[in-house]
Amino acid sequence: MRRSLFLLIIGLGGAAILLALGIWQVQRLGWKQAIIADIDSRIAAAPVALPTNPDPETDSYLPVAVSGQIEPGALHVLVSQKQLGAGYRVIAPFRTDEGRLILADLGFLIDEQKDSAAPIGPADITGNLQWPREVDGFTPEPDTARNIWFARDVDAMAEALGTEPLLLVARETSLADSPVTPLPVDTAAIPNDHLQYAITWFSLAALWLAMSLAFLRRRPAAKAES
Predict the structure, then answer these.
(1) Where do the TM regions start and end (predicted)?
(2) Under CATH, what is the fold of the domain 62-184?
(3) Any residues with CB less than 8 A from the CB of 23 and at least 6 apart, and which?
(4) Which residue in 8, 183, 211, 216 is a FRET match for 55, CA 20 to 30 A apart?
(5) What's the rounded Cα separation, in Å, for the pair 72 and 104?
């Protein structure tokens, strides 16, 4: 009797812990969905003028429209796009009509066109401010000799090009017949696996209960046979 009670406690206790983890992931899912919905609304808002002193926390994803001049010296960040293959994000110095020099992420350039002339000259750009966190301890140093970067490091790129540490990711540009295709800011890149985690925990809870019940039912039968 004591052994059966102990097994019952272990079975119910383990299932309760697994269910609690599943419920926590459901709560995290709601939290993440609210964040993504907020970001989506900020991305799609009407564009405004470039802020004087943009803040990475409050102005991230802010839609902005600027006019000015794309200057020489674009940097290439190695990326890959589905159905297109390997290529590069083109990060160019952009001087606004007000005289500010910022970084402009103009979009994707396929690998075969890397050595072609990058867009230079007058342009209008509508996009979103972003401070991407793509650099970690495993990110290689940029190959400056071949102009290949492996992440969008805003501070390092700004230092290399002599611009403000400010990145505008283009959604639309006035560049006609340009080989560079805009890669707008997209919340699809934000990881949101909480539903899968919740299903996993709930499935484990059900399995734990089934195994515990089977073990409890098996013990009296084994005892009767002895």
Answers:
(1) 195-216
(2) OB fold (Dihydrolipoamide Acetyltransferase, E2P) (2.40.50)
(3) 198
(4) 183
(5) 12
How do beta strands 101-110 and 75-81 pair?
A: unpaired
- Whether the predicted pLDDT of 116 surpasses 80: no
- Specify whether the CB–CB gap between 95 and 68 falls below 8 A: yes
- How far apart (Å, rounded) are the C-alpha atoms in residues 66 and 50? 7
Phi, psi of 76 (to 5 degrees): -115, 125
How confident is residue 39, by pLDDT bands cut at 50, 70 and 90?
confident
Residues 6 or more apart from 70 whose CB is under 8 A from it?
Answer: 92, 93, 94, 104, 106, 118, 119, 120, 121, 122, 123
List Cβ neighbours of 114 (8 Å cut-off, separation of 6 or more). Answer: 76, 87, 88
Q: What is the mean pLDDT of residues 10-21?
A: 88
Which among 128, 133, 180 has a CA at the least distance from the CA of 153?
A: 133
Domain ranges of the chain: 2-39+191-225, 62-184
Cα separation of 23 and 61, whole Å? 31
